[in-house]
Structure formats: structure tokens, C-alpha cells
Amino acid sequence: MAQPTGRLAVKWSGPAFPGLAGDRPAGVGGLVQLALRKLLRQPGAWAGMALVGIAILGSVAAPWLATYSPVEIDLQAQLQPPSPLHIAGTDFYGRDMASRLLYGGRTTLAIAAVAVVLASVAGTALGLVAGFGRDWLGQTWVSLIDLLLAFPSLLLALLIVGILGPGLHALAVAVGLAAIPIFARMVRGTVLTIRSAPYVDAAIASGARDGYILVRHLLPGVIAPVLTLAALEVGLAILSVAALGFLGLGAAPPLPEWGSMLYEGRQYLGVAPWVSTGPGLAITLTVLGATLLGDAISSAMAPGRS
Predict the structure, then answer these.
(1) 41, 43, 98, 171 - which has most CB atoms within 10 Å?
(2) What are the beta bridge partners of residue 21?
(3) What is the mean pLDDT of each run of 10 residues along the chain (306 residues)?
(4) What is the CATH number of the domain that holds 258?
(5) Is 181 inside a domain boundary?
(6) CA–CA distance, 259 with 270 (Å, rounded to integer)
């Protein structure tokens, strides 16, 4: 069977992706190298990598960078403004805000990362089955995806946390599960396009098993859009984690987490604004960096540029 020369259009709301031509998708290694070259030419990518890199580096190196314990109470140092002794000030309990910001980043970023990985893996599997599944199986998964998409992500996360109970593990699962329908819908749309390619028809005609077709022929074609969507979802996951933490559904005191720290400092805005300013800026700048990096990755994955 002759291989087609045209490029199939990706039927989803994001950009088009390489590797979706009529022939079998290109190798992941070559795709990553090409996208990396495009990525490094974009100023937004450098700004995003700088902001996200600072947040990650500060969180990972917290045990070495923090000059105080993030949970140790010192009532004699209550609500002290930023100074050489406490560069980000102290909170109501006299805890050093800079140390709490560093350790709080470890909690917030770790939960967001686990949630995105969970959503991308589970959403990809669900989308593959929904896009390729025949008859009642495919329709069942499509109906489930549409039902979950009817709920706003944060509301769905709240519902899941309400069922599982507050806590770090429940928070990661809730944010991840709430984002699964987004990945599943995008992957399903991509699979519906790829499955009409001649090489997939040939595999079906040869009697290949559905599992083999999914892994060998369809999965490589959805890797690029999944990676792009995952990059874009990181910022939203951080916001969701912080929002749920602000509502008291995240880390239990005294464990620092940016959202819960923002909640704790709200009542001192008039007398000690630095208690809320620190975690607020950390959330804002990290989400901004993740968004810039995600947009740059999306542009780098789009075909037509070298």
C-alpha cells in the first residue's frame, strides 16, 4: 500500500503537532531534539525556565538554603518585618518566612508534579481507548469523559478531596483526577484522526490485536500533544493546589505550603503584609514561568518551523 504524502490535521483546539503525517510518526528522540532547538530560540522559554528553575532549585536546596527551621516557633520574633536577620520577615508565630517559602515550594511543586503525571498517564490511556474502542466500549468512555468535563476542574477537585479527606496524598490525587478528562478528550481527538491513516488500516486488516495497534501505531502519534498539554497544565495544577491549600484542604499545620501560608497571612494584611506577599509572589511568579514555558513548548512542538 502506497504511503500518503499529505499531513493530517489534528482535530483539537491546540496547535498542530509533528509526527501526525500519513506515514508512521517519527521517533520520539528526533522529535524531542527538533523541539528543543526551536524552544531555545524563544525568549519566553528562557524567562519561563528561569522562573521555574529558581522555584525548583530553591525547593530542592531548601535544607541548605534555609537559615531557620520552617516550623520552629519563636514568640519573641512575632511579625517582624523583613530585615537582614529575617530577609522575608516572620509570621505570627515568629517562624522565618524565607525558610517556610523554600520548604513550602517543595510541598506545592511536588503535589503539582505528581498530579500532572497522574493526569497525563491516565488521561492518555483513557483517550486511547475512547478513540479506538469499538461499539459500546468507546461510547462508554466518551460518555464518562463528557460527564467529567461538565464539572469545572477546581469544583471536581473539591468533590474528590471531600470524598478522600484532606491531606497531601488526597490533594495530589484530586488535582490529578480533575485534569484527566482534559488529557483524555485531547488524546481521543488525536486518535480519531490518526486511526484513519493507511498504516493503521493495514494493521487492522492484518489481524493485529487492538492492544498492539494502540501501543505500536497510535501511542507514538499522541506523545507530542500530551507533552505539550502537560507543560501547559503545570501552571494550572500549581494554582489548583494553592487554591485547595488556601481553603484548608492541603497540608496540615505546621507543614508549610504556599496556599495554606497565603491563608494564614490573610488576617495580618493590615499590620504585616509580608506574611501573605511572600507566598503570593511565589505562586504568581512560578505560575507565570510555567505558563511562559508551556506556551514556548507548544510553539516548539508546532510543525513548519526549523
Answers:
(1) 171
(2) 7
(3) 38 39 50 72 88 94 93 92 93 94 94 95 89 69 78 84 85 92 89 80 74 78 86 91 88 88 89 93 95 86 58
(4) 1.10.3720.10
(5) yes
(6) 19
